[in-house]
Specification:
Blueprint: E1 8-16, H1 21-32, E2 38-47, H2 50-57, E3 62-64, H3 74-78
Parallel strand pairs: 1-2, 2-3
């Protein structure tokens, strides 16, 4: 019998992952998150940046939608 995955799925979404307060905080959280209990996905809307590079260095893939950061962009809203 296959054991079920009971990890909590978490999606962290950012407009971009350049250096900033929220982005630096995200890196800090990811450095200390329990990987055995959490299944983490990191995504940014427009482009990766310095913090994305640091997140990838600690083993989390960063997905980038290469879209607009604007909340008025209908494509971004329903992506």
């Amino acid at each position: 019998m296959e054991k079920q995955n009971n990890k909590i799925k978490i999606l962290f979404m950012h407009p971009n992952l350049d250096v900033g307060g929220a982005e630096s905080n995200r890196l800090s959280v990811l450095k200390n998150i329990n990987r055995d209990k959490n299944d983490v996905t990191v995504c940014c809307l427009s482009h990766k940046g310095k913090i994305a590079e640091e997140i990838e260095k600690i083993g989390f893939p960063v997905h980038c939608l290469n879209s607009s950061e604007s909340i008025f962009n209908i494509r971004t809203t329903f992506f």
